[in-house]
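Researcher: Re-running this chain for the archive, since the previous output was lost when a drive failed. Same request as before.
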Amino acid sequence: MAERAHPDHGFKDKYFGLKKNPYKKALFERYKFCNKYVAGKVVIDIPSGTGWGTSLIEGAEHITGIDIDAESVGYAKNNYGKENIEFKVGNMQSIDLPDHSIDVLICLEGLEHVPRDVGYGFIEETHRLIKPGGIIILTCPIIVEGGAHSGNPYHLYEYPELELLELLNANYFCIRIEEIETPDNPIIRFVGTSKKGAQMNPSQSSQG
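Model: Regenerated structure tokens:
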């Protein structure tokens, strides 16, 4: 979210004058949404950046924030580490956690910050980590038909809408999906359970 969402930099409301910071508002909204799914669960937040967003996760049994940037992880440990929250340096394609050890994997606007092949490798890695019946919560900007890259230099690969939907539907049973309008490109929010784990519970169905 917002290129590591550092709370001491341009993420404060004052940098937007009288207008509330839209990126801060989005960060709080995204994590509030995730909190519906995490009560009593073992959770990964990746990429976790400086840990500010991860610290907004409430009610989980245990949370591991993972990011490739050691400086950000150090900041997160010093400012947001506590009994049930830890932070680790890690790569999205090879996460140092046991097989099928996670109930909920959260990836909020992280997929576009890595090259396409790394994103696909990450999706494959999620199947190893998530328990049967566990879920992924993912948000990612999309390029709609006829649209173009947002121009954000931190976005190494922005997914055409059809490609992202095909990738998600090939790997997960959909529990919920929606499109969020933003000042930049729209964002897909997806909740699903792995097709490589247990069969979908009959109570789980797609929601628009």
